[in-house]
Design brief:
Elements: H1 4-8, H2 16-30, H3 41-71, H4 79-87, H5 91-100, H6 108-121, H7 124-137, H8 142-160, H9 172-188
Length: 197
Amino acid sequence: MNDPYKVLGVSHDATDEEIKKAYRNLARKYHPDNYVNNPLADLVEEKMKEINEAYDTIQKQRAQGSSTASSSSSGNVSFSQIRVLINQGRFSEAGTYLDYVPVSERNAEWNFLKGCILAKRGYYYDAQKYYETACYLDPENAEYSDALNKFKNINASRNSTYQTSSASSCDTCSICQGLICADCCCECMGGDLIRCC
């Protein structure tokens, strides 16, 4: 059988909801009832069978990964099982299992996965630190360095949009100083901008 993810037209890190949506769309499109008395009926029936098999395969793989993870009471879950949880969008559960890993066993992959979870939750600064640690511990790993570079590019573009110009200062002290100076000038000319008494 072909890669079930390719059959459904989704990536391996798609969430369960994305997979279900892709399956439903394809099932609607290739349902045999839509091709009654059509010369393509046999082809459509084969395609629908392939779609069903792909969906079932993905569901079994993910159920096996999550049941293995949930059946482990000591928290001894493999990193591949934690990846499955992350791909399913179960970040809290994946993070809990990562936290069970003893400090002495927190290698490059542990740091990478921790960074993935933090990034998905929006903790970008912390995520970048974990990605950097993963790259430091395993500098030859392309997956870790690609993730870090992509993350740095995103952060760089995010930070560039928040830069402010230092040419015009508009803080409270500057405003007060400007008003006092203007009041003094007015009083020198016989007027009064700010009445004190």
